[in-house]
Amino acid sequence: MTIAAFFLGFVLSSLLGFFFHMWKGGGIGKLVLYLLLSWAGFWAAQILGTTMEWEFLKVGSLLVGLDLSGGLLFLLIGHWLSLVKNEEEG
Fold it and tell me: How far apart are CA 53 and CA 61, in angstroms?
């Protein structure tokens, strides 16, 4: 993977996390959470897709379609898990 592909992946996954934050809202803590989740999902999908030799909307060495799907999956699951409240909080 080239430096340009890594940079493009970082920008795309960051935009995904930022737009998810704009959609769901929250403070700076949620923004950091969404960025971390989108980065993790994006690169996990890239590793999985490369290992399994899957291709979906490939741009250079990036599997953009699969990577964005992985990032979105991580974001949705992470958002859902972040909605859990303690019984003491009410």
Answer: 12
Contact residues for 12 (Cβ-Cβ < 8 A; gap 6+): 42, 64, 67, 68
Q: Is there a domain that residue 30 lies in?
A: yes
Residue 88 lies in a domain: no
**Helix and strand tally (H, E) in the chain?**
3, 2
Q: Is 60 helix (H, G, I), strand (E, B) or coil?
A: coil
Chain position carrying tokens 């929250």? 26
Question: 58 by DSSP, 3-state: which?
Answer: strand
pLDDT above 70 covers a percentage of the chain that reads: 94
* Residues spanned by the domain of 18: 3-82
What's the token pair of residue 80? 């859902």
pTM score = 0.85
Per-residue confidence (pLDDT) for residue 68, from 0 to 100: 93
Q: What are phi and psi of 62, to 5 degrees?
A: -90, 135
